[in-house]
Amino acid sequence: EEQEMEVDDTKPAKTKRGQKKIGEKTEPEEEPLDSVEPTSKRRRKAPEEKGGDTKKTTNKSSTQYDKIDFSNSSKNAQNREWNIKISCWNVDGIRAWLGKGGLEYIAHEKPNILCLQEIKCSRDKLPEEVTNIPGYHAYWLCSEKEGYAGVGIYTTKLAMNVQYGLQNKELDDEGRIITAEYEQFYLICTYVPNSGRKLVTLDKRMKWNEEFRKHVKTLDEKKPVIICGDMNVSHNEIDLTNPKSNKRNAGFTDEERAGMTELLGDGFVDTFRLLYPDKSGAYTFWSYMFNSRAKNVGWRLDYFIISERLLPSLCDSVIRDQVYGSDHCPISLFLHLTSADK
Amino acid sequence: EEQEMEVDDTKPAKTKRGQKKIGEKTEPEEEPLDSVEPTSKRRRKAPEEKGGDTKKTTNKSSTQYDKIDFSNSSKNAQNREWNIKISCWNVDGIRAWLGKGGLEYIAHEKPNILCLQEIKCSRDKLPEEVTNIPGYHAYWLCSEKEGYAGVGIYTTKLAMNVQYGLQNKELDDEGRIITAEYEQFYLICTYVPNSGRKLVTLDKRMKWNEEFRKHVKTLDEKKPVIICGDMNVSHNEIDLTNPKSNKRNAGFTDEERAGMTELLGDGFVDTFRLLYPDKSGAYTFWSYMFNSRAKNVGWRLDYFIISERLLPSLCDSVIRDQVYGSDHCPISLFLHLTSADK
DNA sequence: CCTAAGATG
DNA sequence: CATCGTAGG
What we know:
2 copies of one chain form a homodimer.
Chain A: E1 84-90, H1 94-99, H2 102-109, E2 113-117, H3 128-131, E3 137-141, E4 151-155, E5 161-164, E6 177-181, E7 186-191, H4 202-220, E8 225-230, H5 254-265, E9 268-270, H6 271-275, E10 302-307, E11 314-319, E12 331-335
Parallel strand pairs in A: 1-2, 7-8
Antiparallel strand pairs in A: 1-12, 2-4, 3-4, 5-6, 6-7, 8-10, 9-10, 11-12
Helix pairs in contact in A: 4-5
Chain B binds a DNA duplex (9 and 9 nucleotides) through helix 1.
């Protein structure tokens, strides 16, 4: 049974723009820059290759977004363009991210919903600049451990219901999951426990996987589910640069990979891999060490995983690997939702 | 009795400049920029006022030294110019100081001896750049506590003997004093224990003062003594911006001030205050907080204190308040030493 | 290599 | 408001 839902939504939007309904775009339709070749098949062209960008991860410049095309003209199975965009970013410390211009990402991406992981900040230390973003409501779940983990959701439309944690005493003290209920779906924003150096916390991770799966299956019985966040696993060899040498490292153990396989076996889909089954070099995380990002030595750890019955709505699932400000990059999911999804 | 002296002096100077003898200037005499008004009296003109310098403490620029005149034409009581310069700087972390260009200070000041306090670095983590400075030997005493306290001495001429600590078990684990014996004097480089917020370590400080005084008096029976370092006390009201509000704060308690008075009563002289008895606003430390340095809200905590019988040799004692790179600034002592000092 | 907190000053 | 160390990744 669910505990009472709390809503941390104290501030009204300051702008007069008014609230957007989910299913309503946040700005006028843009003409796509690419050719409008119909994408009748699930298979897509690979995302553009990164240029020889030497930008540092600590770059604060507001110009990083000028080169990025945030428009998306991909169609769903019924040849409809997206009408809701959900984005997701492990920010690796929301205060550092703020200092690196993280808010500009929101202004450029303009998602209907943005899920953040690893905010590493207790609720009372969240700067007003991040709690009070015009046009968005926000839900936060912070770790009891200071400066550790923590997740948040920005949303243009209020959720019907918000559930904090998994309702499991052992697993709910670190701020790792918020479940937001909307009319047509449940949205899960999660930061899955890392198994640690030398896999010291693999047991905890396995326990998490178990409870998480239960949670997701329960939700899925009621409404389709959209899971997003840092799943802290690269599912297959194609999902990281060095699969061989990482077989016994956190993020690519058999146990963690099997966890993902099980989840997908319950009727969920890894949207990016569905759309781009052969795309290699597509990562969402690069260690700060060894200049990994410049060399694109990375891992795909961040996912949009959706109930299979949402597939007709799926327009695109993309990795914003040009966006800097964390050791992860953002990802975005584009859906066309209609009343048929209810 | 003294323990065996260790000398941490593994590297020969890399340059071919050769060693300077103490009493030999490290570079050709420069023509002083100021008028050569003879300074027959102990009383001097005040150091120049700081300009409206907005430089940050973290400034790495190598240009900060261009505006500073390191020459000094002050004479001793026999109207002789200096032939030995000793400098002293609480660097507040030698690695951070190195990154802020601290070594450039040495190149510009060119002291015969430079004493450093608060190196905050264990011996094995000292960067080679600071342990291997051409033309200087180095002695180090590091705290057993990582990244805490610690002192060091650079010297162009090898000391005859080097004593590490006070030979007191309770007080010698934090790297707070090196005593170097030269032909004509003992040099003490010290970082006196801070009494702490709410004076939690005032007892330890009092114990230190007691043992330190014994040590100094013992040395003084053999040779004149030059004490330099962060004494962690402002002796009198003139020595800090806010004496009233700091009467019960570390650095200006009656107990600490009395300690300095006692030391001076044993036949030692605070050289700066002797030469500039009325000079106010002369500080060597400014809290990083509240933009204190820009406002010159500071404390005089760093001293050259010498045996009275060295007074005939004293040419000048100056505060390098234009030099940035720490929350303290360097100070320099100019002496003319002759065989009469032996 | 980055984030963060905590201790110290 | 700086310097550290350490934990975490």
